[in-house]
Write a structure and sequence with these properties.
Elements: H1 5-15, H2 22-64, E1 67-71, H3 79-87, E2 92-107, E3 110-119, H4 121-126, H5 128-131, E4 134-137, E5 148-152, H6 153-159, E6 166-177, E7 180-194, H7 199-202, E8 205-209, H8 210-216, E9 225-230, H9 236-239, H10 241-246, E10 251-255, H11 256-259, H12 261-299, H13 301-309, H14 314-345, H15 347-358, H16 365-368, H17 379-405, H18 409-413
Parallel strand pairs: 3-8, 5-7
Antiparallel strand pairs: 1-9, 1-10, 2-3, 2-6, 2-9, 4-7, 5-8, 6-7
Helix pairs in contact: 1-14, 2-12, 2-14, 2-17, 12-14, 12-17, 14-17
Domain ABC3 transporter permease C-terminal: 276-409
Domain MacB-like periplasmic core: 30-239
Keywords: Cell membrane, Lipoprotein, Membrane, Transmembrane, Transmembrane helix, Transport
């Protein structure tokens, strides 16, 4: 929309407060602030929701792989053959044997539910999620049949256990005696403590070499599952379809979507719902722009009539009032982007400050899954939010602009 010199001058004057027009300027200012808050709220919420999904995906998939080939009854006797078939499947980048079993952990009279996870030594030492999150000790100390384990930081806190202490793992499925089954108890030295950032993992995981897990659970040369990673996590079902057919009847292939279906579906639904609800804030702001422009048109009726008698075209008046409304929306959108990105940059400090002032724990990891507030701005989503604000602002200018353009100068100036 190209404006002539006089149209730009008039639009500029209408954007600034004139004598007796303080209330109109106040309404326009409120409209600008409302657009700013709406755009900022949308950017912040959508970025945080994207951050949630990305963090959960990275950490869950980082520990569990893109899919698992799980034996019936939690046992995979011919795991070596399945492992060869998995590695030979096109699109599979890695496959490793795995054991997972919920048991009990004890230290100095304290008992906690734990999830024993047996992994190959190579996988333990090279797993990016574990290796980057070690807060004490060294994963390199874990060796086959070495009697050493790595545990989550929350589990260490709950049990009061420190590096070098002995953690007793209790396996209820122990040895049978004439007096019943005696639970099997094995002590392991804590060689490393990690903090993945997902509360459920940090409060339960006990990682050990797969050979130690087999001995603890009396499995022999058996594993629970084969963990598989592929070249594309989003195409994992199609990639592993041939493997699923080969192991049918012996095992079942479960991908990351199926393992965490309820969690990711809930995030997707909440993301859409939050976008729709928060878009209403922008819509309310647009109605403020509409009302301020209507008041401006009524206040400037005499000026509009004079402009028409001086030769101003209807199209020129439409452009002037559209420019005023779109400028308010654009300034609000730009301010909202600045406010949104500023909040995202200092998000954890803001949460900590509010917690300090209110004395309330706003970010309980046991509820939120993650230990810190995540954020991942999506340029495409931000562009859509900004475009939506501009389109709404433009639509709000149509009625006042055409109302001004249809002003009859004869009727207005008849008694002047």
């Amino acid at each position: 929309m190209i404006l002539s010199r006089y149209e730009r001058m008039i639009a500029r004057r209408y954007l600034l407060p004139g004598k007796g027009e303080g209330f109109i300027f106040l309404v326009a200012g409120i409209s600008l602030v409302a657009v700013m808050l709406g755009v900022a709220a949308l950017i912040i919420v959508m970025s945080v929701m994207n951050g949630f999904r990305a963090e959960l995906f990275d950490k869950i998939v980082g520990l569990n792989g893109h899919a698992v080939v799980q034996g019936y009854g939690g046992r995979l006797p011919d795991w070596k053959a399945v492992l060869r078939e998995a590695k030979a499947t096109p699109g599979v980048t890695s496959a490793t044997p795995l054991i997972e079993q919920p048991l009990l952990g004890s230290f100095q009279g304290r008992v906690e539910a734990v999830l024993v996870r047996g992994m190959t030594v190579n996988d333990i030492r090279n797993n990016a999620t574990l290796k980057a999150k070690v807060v004490a000790g060294n994963l390199g100390a874990l060796t086959p049949n070495g009697g050493k384990v790595a545990i989550g930081s929350r589990l260490a806190e709950n049990l009061g256990i420190q590096l070098g202490d002995s953690l007793t793992i209790i396996n209820p499925a122990g040895r049978s005696t004439p007096f019943g089954t005696v639970p099997r108890q094995v002590s392991y030295q804590v060689a490393a403590i990690f903090e993945v950032g997902i509360y459920d993992y940090d409060k339960a995981f006990v990682v050990m070499p797969v050979e130690d897990a087999q001995t603890l659970l009396l499995l022999g040369d058996v594993v629970s599952m084969i963990e598989v990673e592929t070249v594309n996590a989003d195409q994992v079902s199609a990639i592993l379809e041939p493997l699923a057919g080969k192991v049918a009847g012996r095992a079942i292939v479960t991908d990351w979507r199926q393992m965490n279906a309820s969690l990711f579906e809930a995030l997707a639904v909440e993301r859409v719902a939050m976008f729709v609800v928060l878009s209403i804030i922008v819509l309310v702001a647009v109605f403020n722009i509409l009302s301020s422009l209507i008041m401006l048109v009524r206040a400037k009726t005499r000026d509009i009539a004079i402009l028409r008698t001086m030769g101003a075209s209807r199209a020129g008046l439409v452009k002037i009032f559209m420019t005023v409304g779109v400028t308010i929306g654009s300034l609000g959108m730009a301010a909202g982007m600045v406010l949104g990105f500023t909040f995202l940059f200092f998000r954890q400090s803001v949460v900590n400050a509010i917690q300090f002032l209110t004395g309330q724990n706003l970010w309980d990891p046991s509820i939120r899954f993650l230990t810190e507030l995540p954020a991942k701005p999506d340029p495409v989503e931000i562009a859509i939010i900004c475009l939506m604000a501009l389109v709404f602002s433009f639509l709000a200018t149509l009625y006042p602009a055409f109302k001004a353009a249809n002003t009859d100068p004869v009727q207005v100036l008849r008694y002047e």
